[in-house]
TrEMBL record:
<dbReference type="InterPro" id="IPR003718">
    <property type="entry name" value="OsmC/Ohr_fam"/>
</dbReference>
<dbReference type="InterPro" id="IPR036102">
    <property type="entry name" value="OsmC/Ohrsf"/>
</dbReference>
<dbReference type="InterPro" id="IPR019904">
    <property type="entry name" value="Peroxiredoxin_OsmC"/>
</dbReference>
<dbReference type="Pfam" id="PF02566">
    <property type="entry name" value="OsmC"/>
</dbReference>
<protein>
    <submittedName>
        <fullName>Osmotically inducible protein OsmC</fullName>
    </submittedName>
</protein>
<dbReference type="InterPro" id="IPR015946">
    <property type="entry name" value="KH_dom-like_a/b"/>
</dbReference>
<dbReference type="InterPro" id="IPR052707">
    <property type="entry name" value="OsmC_Ohr_Peroxiredoxin"/>
</dbReference>
Amino acid sequence: MAFTRSASTVWSGDLASGTGETTFETSGIGTFPVTWRARTEAAEGKTSPEELIAAAHASCFSMALSNILKGAGHVAEKLETTAEVDFDTSDGAKISEIRLTLKATIPGLTDEEFQTHAQAAKVGCPVSAALAAVPSITLDASLTQ
């Protein structure tokens, strides 16, 4: 069974001086301004495709890990995931790296088990798979008790 989610963007003007608005259609959570400047310089209250990718990756990874943990008989007390997406314009425009940082509280789990599960979630989350063309996706995972 497939589930479709949608968002839309309306853009006016050229790349450098134009502006756009991205709307989360499915959830209805809002419309957010986007600009090239917000993508390559200061965000100034606007978003970018890379920030949206970061949000998708952080949430997908957290969900994947919670599912893996459940299968291993554990429930996370807290998973705090941050995704940082680098947009590189030095040699053409591309996403050059994604860094996932995870701070987790999972009672009864050894660090070795935790690292194994975290790496499996990094590889197995559907957003990671969709981003497979990114040259580097790293994970720094730490477990707190």
